[in-house]
Amino acid sequence: MNDLSMYKVFDDLDRSPLQRMIGIGFIGIIDLKKVNILRKTNKTSNADWFSIDNIPELSYDHNKILESALEELKKDITSSDILKTFFPDGFTLPELQSVYESILDIKIDRRNFRKKMISLNLIIDTGKEILYKGKKPAKLYKFNKKVENTNIFKNIDIR
C-alpha cells in the first residue's frame, strides 16, 4: 500500500438530502506532527483529531464511511505492509502492539505478539535501544523489507 490508497466509492442515492453526491474513500498514513489541520474553513468550524473510539457524530453518511474505512484498515493492517510507512524510523514492540490493538480493537498477549512477529521474520532487531515511555530501555526494530505481505494473525489466537 502506498501512503494514500483509494479503497471505495460511496454512491448511495440518499447520501445527502441536498443533492446527488458521490464520495471516494481513501486510506492514508500520515505523520501527525507534520500535518496542520485547517480548523475553520468556509464549510468547517470544528475540525480536529479524534481517537478511534471517540468519534463524534459527523454529517450525512460520514460516520458510515469512517466505519467502512476502519474495517478496510483492519484488513490492511493484518495483510499488508501499511505499517512500514507508519514506522519509517523503527519502533519498539510495545509501540507496534499498541497500534495493532488500537486499530483491531483487541487485546493481544505481549509474549505471543513478540513470538509471532519474530517467528514470521517480519521484523529485524536494529541493535539499538530507546527508552519506551521514559521508563526502561526497549529494543528498536524495523520491518524486514524482504518479507512479502502476509496475514500475520491467520489461524492464530492472539488474545
Overview of the molecule:
It is elongated, with a radius of gyration of 18 Å. The longest helix has 18 residues. The strands form two sheets. A two-stranded antiparallel ribbon has the order 1-2. The C terminus is likely disordered. The chain folds into two domains: 76 residues, no CATH class; 58 residues, Arc Repressor Mutant, subunit A (Orthogonal Bundle). It starts with a strand and ends in a 16-residue tail after the last strand. 28% of the residues lie in helices and 19% in strands. The chain has 159 residues and is an alpha+beta fold. Strand 3 and strand 4 form a beta hairpin.
- Decide which structural class fits the backbone: alpha+beta
Uncertain stretches of 5 or more adjacent residues:
155-159
Strand order of the largest sheet: 1-2
Overall average residue pLDDT: 82
Number of DSSP E strands: 4
Give the count of structural domains.
2
Envelope shape: elongated
Sheet with the most strands, sense and barrel status: 2 strands, antiparallel
Helix content: 25-40%
Report Rg: 18 Å
> Secondary-structure element order, as H and E?
EEHHHHEE
- What share of residues are in beta strands? 15-25%
Distance between the termini: 27 Å
Query: Helix count?
Result: 4
